[in-house]
Amino acid sequence: MASTFSSSLNLELQASGENSGTWGVITNNNLQKVESAIKGYVAVAIASTSDSLDTSDGSTTDEQSNAIIKLTGTLTGNTTMQSEAVETWYIVDNATTMGTHSLSFKPAGGAGTDLVAGSKHILYSDGSTMFDVLNDAGNITANGTLTVAGDVSLDGGEFKFNEAGADKDFRIEGNTATHLFFSDAGNDRIGINNASPSKTLDITGTFKTSGAAEFAGDVDVDGGAFTFNEAGASVDFRAETNTLTNAFFIDGSADRVGFGTNTLTNGFVTIDQASSTGAIAALSIDQGDEDQEFIDFRGTSASDSSASISSSTDEGGSKVGAIRISVNGTDRFIRIYDTAI
């Protein structure tokens, strides 16, 4: 009865009583193929866009029987390398020059897996499909440095850095900025374009928010200008106090300012001390420079009542009332005339 050969390693299965005088050589060949399947290495130069690993029944020189296969050569197009359609596994080192082409490794007639340029792959085949073990690996622990030359895609799970709470910084570089994003673990601070953040969030440069921004703590603008609505849009600005919802209000569409109100009159500035029991003046002016005026009025001057300032000294106008003021704590009244002449 003639010898047969195994499907995965092409080992020669000798029939009883066969190969008298050569059975030892054949057995040694089989052992060498088993050794290659466990620890063997071979370099294979890809010769065409549709290439196959050499196979040989009973031979110790076939490429497919090796555990580690290094692929070399320059691809001339999208290329497929195939093995026999059997259950097997490989460590494949893709050392080819790929250019813009792809390289797939598959069992004959089956589905393959794409190899990455300059990368090593752990592959196994069920006889019809070639699988890359690390394409869908479970938990991976790296005790040394993990360097990734390609894209990193996180899909369907959380990303946690430094969950153990160690003093380990985190840094993302930009095209020219070395600390575009920097997590200072020792000080529990974040720097944006800042290698030495001095606050919980320390930004060097400009920032923009297109949505609402809410600050529960202090906001400190130190060393630079603060500009609201630099684009000149019709956007309001409002500052609250303990009880006033409109302690300071800018009406962006009307170009007016309000203190204590958002219902603005015809004046550029409206001050509304609306509390009937507040016991405070609507406006208090403290002039520390004794040589200077309290208020500087500027406008167009006329000799009658036709302009904002009148040069008339006529006292012929009718008194219509008075406005109460306080001078150094003493109440006084300013008389009002119905006309300047």
What is the strand and helix layout of this fold?
Elements: E1 4-5, E2 12-13, H1 23-39, E3 41-45, E4 50-52, E5 68-72, E6 79-83, E7 87-94, E8 103-107, E9 113-114, E10 120-126, E11 130-132, E12 170-172, E13 181-184, E14 189-192, E15 201-203, E16 237-239, E17 248-251, E18 256-259, E19 269-271, E20 301-302, E21 309-310, E22 319-327, E23 330-337
Parallel strand pairs: 3-5, 4-6, 5-7, 6-8, 14-15, 18-19, 20-21
Antiparallel strand pairs: 1-2, 7-10, 8-9, 10-11, 12-13, 13-14, 16-17, 17-18, 22-23
The number of helical elements comes to 1
- The oligomeric state is single chain
The residue ranges in which pLDDT falls below 50 over 5 or more consecutive positions are none
Strand content: 25-35%
The average pLDDT score comes to 90
Structural account:
The chain is mainly beta. Among the domains are: 4-136, no CATH class; 160-209, no CATH class. The chain is 5% helix and 28% strand. The chain contains one helix and 23 strands. The protein has one helix at 23-39, and strands at residues 4-5, 12-13, 41-45, 50-52, 68-72, 79-83, 87-94, 103-107, 113-114, 120-126, 130-132, 170-172, 181-184, 189-192, 201-203, 237-239, 248-251, 256-259, 269-271, 301-302, 309-310, 319-327, 330-337. Strands 3-5-7-10-11 form a five-stranded mixed beta sheet. Strands 4-6-8-9 form a four-stranded mixed beta sheet, with no helix packed on it. Strands 12-13-14-15 form a four-stranded mixed beta sheet, with no helix packed on it. The longest helix is centred in the N-terminal third of the chain and has 17 residues, at 23-39. The protein is rod-shaped. The termini are far apart.
